Amino acid sequence: MAECKNQNSCGAKRPATGETDENLISKKPTAMISSLLEDPAAAIANTRHEFGEHGGVNMSIEASATFTVMEPETMQRLFAGELGPDRDFFIYSRHFNPTVLNLSRQIAALEGTAAAYCTASGMSAIAAVFLQLLASGDHVVAARTLYGGTHALLAHFLPRTSNITTSFVDISDLEMVEKAIVEGKTKVLYFEAIANPTLVVANIPELCRIGHEKGLTVVVDNTFAPMVLSPARLGADVVVHSISKFISGGADIIAGAVCGPTKLVNSMMDLLQGGLMLLGPTMNAKVAFELSERIPHLSLRMKEHCRRAAVFAERMKKLGLKVIYPGLPDHPQHQLLKSIGNSEYGFGGILCLDMGTEERANKLMNVLQNTTQFGFIAVSLGYYETLMSCSGSSTSSELSGKDKELAGISPGLVRMSIGYMGTLEQKWSQFEKALTKVQNLGLPYCNNI
């Protein structure tokens, strides 16, 4: 049998390729040439590759909940923080797991941050970040338009349980954002890179400038735009993800991630004060393995999602439909996204149709799913089939009527996550047939009818 790599690793392993880790789940950005920092796909390709235990091209799944040591004294050193994952020592998978650690490295590379930690869900990642950065009496400035679960966390749960309050603002109004910041009390500026569901694009560089001038931590949810936008490279301090969406791509996994500086992520894993450590939103190693195998083709998937969404949006607009898509020249933030987005990745894989009323929206979706098979009536996004839902009565239902109005969420707003199953022309034909069917039912679909 081969000699042990160290006292905590009892099997021979083929060495990983790529750079070595400096601290916990961090990577060395200095090991990457500047051009790699500009393309997420190149950055991912530059991360270390974990081979399997017996030399397999895919890494092994470390399914153990707990890990053995060769000497009793080693256990004490592990809990004292003298030994850790940076030297291939592990204690317990709620703390760190080798398979989850590898996925975290990939996600950190994707977002261009020094570190990342993968969690059991997107909401657990978001909640842990807030609870780590904020204390009782603190204040948050957040975008009016947020995923319903995040809005409920900020508007209802945190005020009740932690005395943490939030002011919701129009994130496009930089003056409003600045005025909402309370000196000495506001600690976090939070927004989505591309808003769910209205597709408002945040001016990340300017918002980061405002936040940093006021001493705030800027946290950005990039779930809608992996590859398309890189908030950390534009100045954000922390980036959160629901990996369940585009990054997973299969609508079969619930997962999340926190990406940021090594110091922050390490603090969240502190034995006494760490939000991730103590709340325990642990990702299963088998889930991490599956996700890590999907990361290499994320760039290809995102390019096709975005390409088809752009084509469909242009064609829908020509038909007279009220379509919202950042890739259309008349979108208020079209030029902004064009200037801050990563080249070659387009304008996102999601578009919205405003049918005016929920009744019209539901009738259109019913025909699209049950008559022409264009897509599925389902929440979530990033699936290979098109998913569609009426946001006001589904993923944004946590917002009050007034909050929906302020957020710009129409009762008939249909959010479509455009898939890549089948050919583009095949899917467009299915959409056109649905519109014809809707017209035959006496339901006007054009905004000018």
UniProtKB/TrEMBL annotation:
GO terms for cellular component: cytoplasm. Gene3D superfamilies: Aspartate Aminotransferase, domain 1, Type I PLP-dependent aspartate aminotransferase-like (Major domain). Its cofactor is pyridoxal 5'-phosphate. Residues 1-10 have a biased composition (Polar residues). Keywords: Pyridoxal phosphate. InterPro entries: Cys/Met-Metab_PyrdxlP-dep_enz, PyrdxlP-dep_Trfase, PyrdxlP-dep_Trfase_major, PyrdxlP-dep_Trfase_small. PANTHER family: CYSTATHIONINE GAMMA-LYASE (PTHR11808:SF80), TRANS-SULFURATION ENZYME FAMILY MEMBER (PTHR11808). Belongs to the trans-sulfuration enzymes family. This is Methionine gamma-lyase-like. It comes from Cucurbita moschata (Winter crookneck squash). The lineage of its organism: Eukaryota, Viridiplantae, Streptophyta, Embryophyta, Tracheophyta.
